[in-house]
Specification:
Chain lengths: 576, 89
């Protein structure tokens, strides 16, 4: 009998068995579809991340801070990598021998280090900024819980010579003073990161994506000339030692462009080693300290007198008997000079003469001249703590105040402001803004303050001041015609004028076509001499002579001046 | 029919092996560029350090000291300078 004819087959099975089977299969399929839907759609990102974390890594890309260079490209500040050693105290279970080896490499005390490792913090620095070579040796020790971190340290090869100009950065590589702060945005780099695939040996095999492109810090090229800066520094330091002065400052400007070629303040500090820093060392005096400029203001009074047409350079002014009483106050001259021309008032530095000129102005006229010269307003070079000095509104001036301002009392300025204002004489009466960075296309003309005629006449007066018969023959330079004005001011001490002085000199050279403006301020000289012509003028002479030589400026003086400069004669005492 | 299938299979195999090979080469080259970039960074660091060293050795203070003390040089006095004006007789 054939199988197909078996009577068993003819017997019908119950229909529910087939349906049950189908239902079972259907449920299984639905479960599978549901699960894959769950994994592929709802849980997809989570699972992909999990997978990626097995092989892909995010790498930090560090960016270096830009360098600072002088105008010739000599490096003044550069960042170079160092390592910082840090620990997770919980993981750092060191054997005594290991701890000793580590402390010896770090050059720190073992007990000090153990105390740090015993703290309950999660992260402690053991030592920051060590050389990469030492860090490599520490890595070879293979200590648990001890890690290193790459950081940058800033080095300043010119050290104290450029300290105030450059400033410094903190341990986080952020500018805190000087150019480092003023140009923080340019200098700072922005670290970036990228995602890569690493193989099992830890080698990068594929670049997946760049998360953030690192931005290297840009270099800053300063207007500063390292040679002139060094000249200014050594000569000022020598003058401070000779005159036993408390402090001093010097500023050298390029008269053609308004660039700051040198800026020195003393006392100074070494930015590479800043332990035990005193506030006095940090002060960027040329920008943050104001002083009463004294007689260095007189040329501005004379310029305004010429400008308003009320005086000519040869107009006679009666300065006898050497005193001038306004209200209850009296202005004195150091010597009685009698009848003086405007030129001679500047040459001999007569207070009475300057005051008489000033009294012919309306207060507003004088105020607006001071204002357009930049007095009373900070220069905004970007340095911290820059001040504008004191220039009260013209409405509140009394006649005696107007008279004293004519010779630089009752008004206060910073050394940088004064040097900047003298640009108006060194140029043809116009003022260009100052620049800390090298300018490739300097402005040809600036904001006019005086007419070119006035500027030329004042230049001639200032040239007289350094010739025999003036207040500063010691400012002369062999081979060059120089011009300038001394200042000797009593210092205000608690509201009253004390027997302390500020000696200053502001001048420029060569007088025939000024190239450099140099301003010098010496605070509290106590070596006997205190007149600007004795204390500050010799510094001017040495600094400007060296600077003109460095810049290769052709001498403009006849040989007879050469001879004259060698004679040593006593300057005329200026009035205070 | 069989021949066509064989050809297609060989083609597919070659392509697969080619993909693997080029992927491997890409990774090797990537490792190489990575290595060179690291070298570039190291050289940049070294350059910075050399610049620093140069500035230290060529510092004005050091040059002046050596010129004065070791070589016994001094700046010329007022009468020792002769200035020559180019262009004028």
């Amino acid at each position: 009998m054939k199988f197909s004819h078996s009577p068993l087959l003819s017997q019908a099975l119950p229909a529910w068995r087939a349906r049950l089977m189908l239902l079972g299969l259907l449920t299984s399929f639905l479960t599978l579809i549901g699960w894959s839907l769950y994994l592929q759609v709802f849980n997809r990102t989570f699972l992909q991340e999990k997978g990626a974390s097995r092989y892909s890594r995010v790498i930090e890309l560090s960016a270096t801070r830009g360098r600072i260079m002088d105008r010739h490209g000599d490096v003044l500040a550069v960042s170079t990598p160092v390592k910082s050693i840090w620990a997770i105290p919980e993981d750092a279970k060191l054997q005594p021998a290991q701890a000793r080896a580590l402390a010896a490499l770090l050059e720190i005390d073992v007990r000090e280090m153990n105390r740090k490792l015993a703290s309950d913090r999660e992260f402690v620095y053991l030592k920051r900024q060590i050389s990469p070579e030492v860090a490599d040796k520490i890595a070879l020790l293979n200590l648990p819980g001890i890690h290193d971190q790459r950081e940058y340290r800033r080095y300043y090869p010119t050290a104290e010579v450029t300290a105030h100009m450059l400033g410094f950065t903190g341990t986080e590589d952020i500018g805190q003073e000087g150019v480092e702060l003023a140009f923080q945005a340019t200098l700072a780099g922005k670290p970036g990161s990228r995602r890569v695939i690493k193989d099992r040996r830890g080698q990068i095999v594929e670049d997946v994506e760049s998360i953030k492109v690192p931005l290297e810090g840009k270099d800053v090229i300063l207007a500063l000339d390292a040679k002139i800066q060094y000249l200014a520094y050594t000569n000022l330091r020598q003058a401070l030692a000779e005159n036993r002065a408390k402090a001093g400052g010097i500023v050298v400007l390029d008269a053609k462009t308004g660039e700051v070629l040198a800026l020195v303040n003393l006392p100074t500090y070494n930015p590479n080693n800043r332990i035990r820093l005193a506030g006095a060392q940090l002060r960027n005096r040329a920008l943050t300290d104001t002083y009463e400029p004294g007689s260095t203001m007189k040329p501005f009074t004379a310029a305004l007198a010429l400008e308003k047409g009320r005086f000519r350079y040869d107009t006679l002014i009666q300065t006898a008997p050497g005193t001038l009483t306004i209200g209850s106050a009296t202005i004195h001259d150091a010597h009685m000079h009698g009848m003086l021309t405007v030129s001679q008032v500047i040459q001999k530095s007569s207070n009475v003469g300057a005051a008489k000129m000033a009294l012919s102005f309306r207060p507003e006229e004088m105020w607006s001249m001071f204002d357009s010269l930049g007095f009373g307003t900070p220069l905004k070079l970007g340095f911290p703590g820059e001040v504008g000095g004191r220039l009260r509104p013209a409405k509140s001036w009394r006649p005696i105040e107007q008279a004293t301002m004519a010779y630089g009392h009752g008004i206060s300025v910073t050394l940088m402001q004064l040097a900047h204002a003298y640009l108006a004489f060194a140029r043809d009466g116009d003022l260009v803004p100052l620049s800390l960075t090298r300018m490739d296309t300097p402005p040809l003309t600036g904001k006019p303050v005086f007419s070119a005629q006035t500027a030329r006449e004042v230049r001639a007066m200032l040239e007289l001041a350094v010739l025999p018969g003036g207040t500063a023959p010691k400012a002369r330079v062999a081979g060059y015609r120089v011009a300038g004005k001394t200042g000797t001011a009593h210092k205000l001490d608690g509201g009253a004028y004390a027997n302390k002085y500020v000696s200053s000199f502001v001048g420029f050279a060569p007088a025939s076509d000024p190239r450099l403006v140099v301003a010098i301020m010496i605070d509290e000289p106590s070596g006997g001499a205190y007149y600007g012509g004795d204390v500050a003028a010799p510094v001017f002479s040495r600094v400007i002579a060296g600077s003109l030589r460095v810049l290769g400026v052709a001498p403009d003086a006849a040989t007879s001046t050469l001879q004259a400069a060698r004679e040593d004669e006593e300057p005329v005492r200026e009035s205070m | 029919m069989l021949r066509l299938n064989l050809i297609l299979m060989i083609l597919a195999l070659t392509s697969a092996i080619g993909t693997v090979a080029s992927n491997h080469r890409a990774r090797k080259m990537y490792a190489e560029i990575e290595h060179e970039q690291a070298r570039m960074r190291d050289l940049e660091v070294e350059w910075g350090q050399l610049q620093l060293e140069q500035s230290t050795w060529a510092g004005n203070a050091r040059v002046e000291q050596i010129a004065r003390n070791k070589l016994h040089m001094k700046s010329p006095g007022a009468g020792q300078v002769l200035s020559i004006d180019a262009g004028k007789p």
